Amino acid sequence: MATTQVTQSTAQRPWLAAATIMTAAGAILGALLTSSAADGWQLLHWLCKPLTTALIFLLAWRTVLPISVRYRRFILAGIGFSLLGDIFLMLPQDLFIAGLLSFLLAHACFIAAFAGGLPFTTGPWQGVLCLAYGALALWILWPSLATPLRGPVIVYMAVLLTMLVQALARAVRLRERGDPLAAPARLAVIGAVLFVISDSLLAWDRFRAALPLASLWVLSSYWAALWLIARSVSRQSQLKPI
Q1: Per the UniProt record, which residue ranges are transmembrane (predicted)?
Q2: Per the domain annotation, does 119 fall within a domain?
Q3: Secondary structure (3-state) at 234
Q4: What's the pTM?
Q5: Burial (CB count <10 Å: 0-12, 13-18, 19+), residue 35
């Protein structure tokens, strides 16, 4: 029975990947054409953006052999808050703070998932590198940040980089122990790095200077991050093609 379930899950993954790629392409295309003042594309963006994140949620939810029930629950909660943030940030109203709070809660859930059963960190280098990056990013963005946004942005960046530190620490500790779960932990690390890249591009485009094809770079790196984090739920996940 277990073998049959694993086979079915493996067979369904390419279809789920194809559907996710198609909806992501629709969301990005709709965003790019809407920003170019083309009519009728905004609805495509509004439909495909939350649908893409929902499909990634489905990937994590349908995992047959999860690392643990606890890990999957926190990852699902994180993707769920990300979906909520997607909706807040795509609406025409200025709901940036609501979106920021949603993604902050998402990262808090990811931190809880990555921290399960392991120390917060295994060494100083992860924290030092992330702290240096955060300081540099704030130094670049600070002159362009409106005063009411500075506090929320600092808090969000601290939580985002804590998520990355915890993902790195977990992968290092599992590798040192020779644990087979080090393979899916590496997927989580790559996903965390891509999340930082996506948010950095978004912050640059929103606060510093317009980024050419911003929707393409921000959304593609964001969904790649979520996809890898979702795949890290499975004990069988490896760094190999889907």
Answers
A1: 15-37, 43-61, 73-91, 97-118, 125-142, 154-172, 184-204, 210-230
A2: yes
A3: strand
A4: 0.88
A5: middle
Q: Which two tokens stand for residue 151?
A: 């506090």
Distances (CA, A) of 168 to 44, 118, 209: 36, 12, 30
Residues 6+ apart with CB under 8 A from 201: 211, 214, 217, 218, 221
Number of domains in the chain: 1
What domain range is 121 assigned to?
Answer: 2-231
Give the list of residues 6+ apart from residue 65 with CB closer than 8 angstroms, or none.
6, 234, 235, 236
Q: What is the DSSP string of 103-121?
A: HHHHHHHHHHHHHTTS-S-
Question: Per-residue pLDDT tens for 154-168?
Answer: 999 999 999 999 999
Can you count the helices (H) and strands (E) in the chain?
8, 0
